[in-house]
């Protein structure tokens, strides 16, 4: 069509000029020479007026000068780990901004040679380029592009890619306005960072990283030419998808560079024969999606969505990328083991193999097939009267888990996993799930006691307890231990590491329920904590983050650093716009914190988490398990000198996981694997004893200062000034304690000989007081 149009115009003008000349040769017309001149001037003026009117009409819809002066391309926001390694990117357009003075001249020459050879001379539009661009169309060829870099930039920034006279007129005028608003170097900076170069890469820096894995200043001449060649048809000339077309286009650019004198003949000859050497690109793995989503929410709340996706910020997080990657791997692996164990428990309890006439291992291996079939055949028809045949507590539940690791000194979050799979559930159970902590709450009960003068060597009673209902004197709450029966008198230390419920409740009542709640608040628990007797065994609410943060106070001398995810944020120009300032809160005195720590250390050696020490993980550590009523939640929060880590396992709907899903069964093994990796390559460090702690020999029967007739004493600790001053008397021994606990809190323990009765790994929580 373009060819026919120009041919018609050429023939028409030629015929009109021929007719005009023939008529002008006649004497009658020579007298009217100036009339013809006036007619030509009128027609020319009318044409110019029409063009001016067109431009005036188009200019009304152009962006304002103010918008031209504030061009803000979309940039990548990059997240880095604690060692400044890139871990994630947020973007709508993948663009890496590079200032003009960092753009290699050789790359500029490659672009000039193929796109705009007179860029430094023209004023936004190169009128001389239009005839040479359109002339080939008159002779059967294809019209070449005549747009300058400035016109291309105008189209990319403000216009649509449609082909129309109106859009071309806008592009023409926008280019002139851009040239009036910016210097040539500024226009080049915008252009080199704005253009699309295929594969989701915007700008030359992003394209160099995508195709070659290099920064711009490391590219070879042939790679510069390849990128410049992408400008015409980015997807068609992609070297990873269309290597032959990309090589041909690259060589065209190299020829133009040689023609312009930008490279020598020898350089051209070497470059056209060079291989493409394109990077085998693999998309960045989604490391720590729950972690990065938390950072995204922080950024969006503070600066808005546009900042997150468009402003090119650099965000330096607290993540330990190696530990995070390992956490991402082990949580679903360990959770799968728990689910398989649960499948076997349900299958055996319901005799599924016999009822379905399929071997047990086959039932479990193809659980997604056989359990729905069993459900439709038996479980759905199980009436209330016949419910005992298939108890609800033994039915299969899909479980979830969460994991969190904090740095003890700073509170920096080093790793976090909020669920089994981020793609299937973005609900972050490490931060958002408010659950009952069960016996994981007991350290706060004993912290209140120790900080107010108690000692782990003091005697407590593991005996039946009946607490009247304050609203109904005929009702009583009779709490139980997980294990049936009671052990009688024992030390507070033993009661703690064996997770006895009755001594914990009595201790809370002795020192005051409001006192216990107050200490829990000092440790950072923010949710509902009722001042009722059952709170001593965890009938309250907390998140995993709250519990892990609270436990950092024990290895940190009673001081709890506030948790955080972001160290600092810089804008695209490197200016720091946010710097985190670590904050701390004192939970209890350092002497009391260390004494409670020794009690928690015993938990890992011969308590409910004895599997820690028995597994061979004999790094100085401490912690506490937690299992709530009906096995609804399984917890383990533990620490070393460097890290505090917490594990939670449960069902999102708060349903029972069934017997055999206690904190020691589900959470402790995952914690061992995690911390074994976390402390790799580090020297084990013990927890130094503060000067304000005194060691006292205590009678295991009376809890007073031991005498010769008391037998082997308990060596245990007090905060200085609170140690007993009264000595034991013979009459106190008429009722001997049912168990004697030889405390080893001040010793460097080797592998202990475990009492079989101390291998119990479960504890319990009562939801309601009455």
Overview of the molecule:
The protein has a five-stranded mixed beta sheet with strand order 2-1-5-13-14. It has a five-stranded antiparallel beta sheet with strand order 7-6-18-17-16, with helices on both faces. The protein is an alpha+beta fold. The protein contains 27 helices and 20 strands. Helix 12 packs antiparallel against helix 13, helix 20 packs across helix 23 (513-522) and helix 20 (442-451) crosses helix 25 (590-606). Residues 1-6, 133-143 and 737-770 have low confidence and may be disordered.
Largest sheet: 5 strands, mixed
**What general form does the structure show?**
elongated
Overall mean confidence score, pLDDT: 83
What percent of residues adopt helix (DSSP H or I)? 40-55%
Whole-Å distance between the termini?
90 Å
Tally of separate helices: 27
- The unreliable regions are 1-6, 133-143, 737-770
How would the blueprint of this fold be written?
Layout: H1 2-24, H2 27-30, H3 33-59, H4 65-68, E1 77-80, E2 86-90, E3 94-95, H5 105-115, H6 129-134, H7 149-158, H8 165-181, H9 184-194, E4 201-202, H10 204-212, H11 221-229, H12 243-259, H13 265-272, H14 289-303, H15 305-310, E5 314-317, H16 321-349, H17 352-356, H18 360-365, H19 367-379, E6 400-407, E7 413-417, H20 442-451, E8 459-462, E9 467-469, E10 472-477, E11 488-491, H21 492-497, H22 501-511, H23 513-522, H24 544-551, E12 559-561, E13 566-570, E14 576-579, E15 584-586, H25 590-606, H26 611-614, E16 622-627, E17 633-639, E18 643-650, H27 663-678, E19 693-698, E20 714-719
Parallel strand pairs: 1-5, 3-4
Antiparallel strand pairs: 1-2, 5-13, 6-7, 6-18, 8-11, 9-10, 12-15, 13-14, 16-17, 17-18, 19-20
Helix pairs in contact: 3-8, 5-11, 5-12, 7-8, 7-9, 11-12, 12-13, 16-27, 20-22, 20-23, 20-25
